[in-house]
Amino acid sequence: NAGVTQTPKFRILKIGQSMTLQCTQDMNHNYMYWYRQDPGMGLKLIYYSVGAGITDKGEVPNGYNVSRSTTEDFPLRLELAAPSQTSVYFCASSYDRYNQPQHFGDGTRLSIL
Amino acid sequence: GIQVEQSPPDLILQEGANSTLRCNFSDSVNNLQWFHQNPWGQLINLFYIPSGTKQNGRLSATTVATERYSLLYISSSQTTDSGVYFCAVEGNTGRRALTFGSGTRLQVQP
Q1: Contact B102/A42, CB-based, under 8 Å?
Q2: Is B98 close to A90, i.e. CB distance below 8 A?
Q3: Out of A10-24, A55-69, B90-104, which region has the weakest mean confidence (pLDDT)?
Q4: Distance (Å) from the C-alpha of residue A66 to the closest C-alpha of chain B?
Q5: B8 preceded by cis ω (within 30°)?
Q6: Which positions in chain A touch B86 (Cβ < 8 Å)?
Q7: Distance CA B43, CA B58 (A)
């Protein structure tokens, strides 16, 4: 199993551009999450999904959108990139809400200039 | 929402030393996990431990849910233990997802 795969690993955007961060998992996990990690800080939840077709806002959802059309994929969309969105983005998944650890992808380092 | 505080924020050890990392949380939890972020930025799940004690090799963790804290013990530390250790919790009410603490940065020197 590949686990949780994120693409791209690095990206530089100009202010106002749009992009989609891809996340896919091959573990048949129901729960998927997007976090951002600013330098020297902990992780903050952007959006999460408890199953295909169901998404919900996390702590810092402004400026982002998500969709969950399949169990495997959970893309994160930035519509109008702003310098404040420069961060490392992590996708994670877990089979269930309880008694199941979260597994993380390797992250996408995004810089907006 | 639920608050998570980790201490100490930074820790420097000599190889072979033992250490204890602490995580305090502000409300009852039904999910608590410890993670290690290595120097390359990868996040590895260490323990799922909303209550009780677990051990995995040189690492062990104890959560006392009634007193709202968890401890991560690292024994005979190695340079490969360096990185940031995060505690993350999910409360019994509110958002159905983990809230992360700000982490303990550990540096193990040879």
Answers
A1: yes
A2: no
A3: B90-104
A4: 16
A5: yes
A6: 42-43
A7: 18
Measured between alpha carbons, how far is A113 from B101 in angstroms, rounded to an integer?
A: 29
Confidence of residue A102 (pLDDT cuts 50, 70, 90): confident
- The tokens for B22 are 């602490």
Measured in whole angstroms, the distance separating CA A74 from the mean position of its chain's CA atoms is 7
For A23-77, what is each residue's pLDDT tens digit?
999 999 999 999 999 988 889 999 999 999 999 999 899 999 999 999 999 999 9
Q: Do A43 and B33 touch (CB under 8 A)?
A: no
CB A66 within 8 A of CB A77: yes
Enumerate residues 6+ apart whose C-beta is below 8 A from A66: A34, A46, A47, A49, A55, A74, A75, A76, A77
Q: How confident is the model at residue A106 (pLDDT cuts 50, 70, 90)?
A: very high
Partner-chain contact A106 B31, CB within 8 Å: no
**What is the per-residue pLDDT for A99?**
63
φ/ψ of A78, rounded to 5, equals -105, 120
Residues of B in contact with A100 (CB under 8 A): 48
> Vertex B91, ends A22 and B85: CA angle to 5°?
60
Cα–Cα distances in angstroms (integers) from residue B59 to residues A87, B38, B46, B62, B70, in the given order? 30, 15, 8, 11, 13
Rounded CA-CA distance A41/A44 in Å is 9
